[in-house]
From TrEMBL:
Any matching Pfam family: CN_hydrolase
Protein name: Apolipoprotein N-acyltransferase
GO terms assigned for molecular function: hydrolase activity, acting on carbon-nitrogen (but not peptide) bonds, in linear amides
Keyword Hydrolase in record: yes
Residue ranges of every copy of the CN hydrolase domain listed in the record: 1-248
Highest taxon listed in the record's lineage: Bacteria
PANTHER family noted in UniProt: CARBON-NITROGEN FAMILY, PUTATIVE (AFU_ORTHOLOGUE AFUA_5G02350)-RELATED (PTHR43674:SF16), NITRILASE C965.09-RELATED (PTHR43674)
Keywords: Hydrolase
Entry keyword annotation includes Oxidoreductase: no
Amino acid sequence: MRIAAAAAHFGRDLDHDLGRIGKLVGDARAAGAALLVLPDAALGGYLADLRHPDPDALPPAFKPDDPILGQVAALAREMVVCVGYCEADGDRRYNAAVALTGDGVLGRHRKVHLPAAESTVYAPGDSFAAFDTPAGRIGMLIDYDKTFPESARTLAVDGAQIVACLSAWPASITNQAPKLAQDRQSKLFDLYDCARAAENQIVVVSSNQTGAVGGMRFLGQAKVVGPAGNILARTWAKAGLAVAELDVAAEIAAARRVLNHLGELRPATYRSAP
């Protein structure tokens, strides 16, 4: 099976966003991908300012059954596509993601872990759950979620073989480096992707936004990581697709043949979170 992770820029222009999604879906289809993971906030863009979000300039919010998701599903057709957006639920907003095909929605996730600024405009989600798709059993995380090992571990214990990490992850805002490769957040972004894959012996498919918004520079660095923590394909900082071909079940079985991390857990010895 071929898996694709996208690095691309998305903003407030929804027609432009849908056009870019259509192009990425087409490119992934031409590459033979069965799964495409698009960035966080691919529909409507991300916050323009992470330190002081303007409540009058937030991304558009869509209900869980908004027709725009049907438009993405129509583009996806036979492919499984994960896409991020701002979800409206009454007066609350969530940083959310949905996995879908042309047949409809397969799974949903609301970002659980919110950095300080996001918590002023978004409500936190309250669960992690894997779900079955034509591309295998998948779970989803949204950028800051992957900083916490418990997030991916919960999905892996729930049977996820693939974890899709959708991000709008910028370079460091408080301590900018002259080159993205030297940036602290750039290094952490890659570290978390590889660690979450290796510690759970699963495949991690990590997408991210590119370009700049306000004072933020998004990192790109989309990648597919194997269950040994090895990067199988990546985009670096440029926009594009990272495409890897692998037998997911066989790769996971090989990684767990001698040391099976999930099978060797000792939960009775672990202190519960406060």
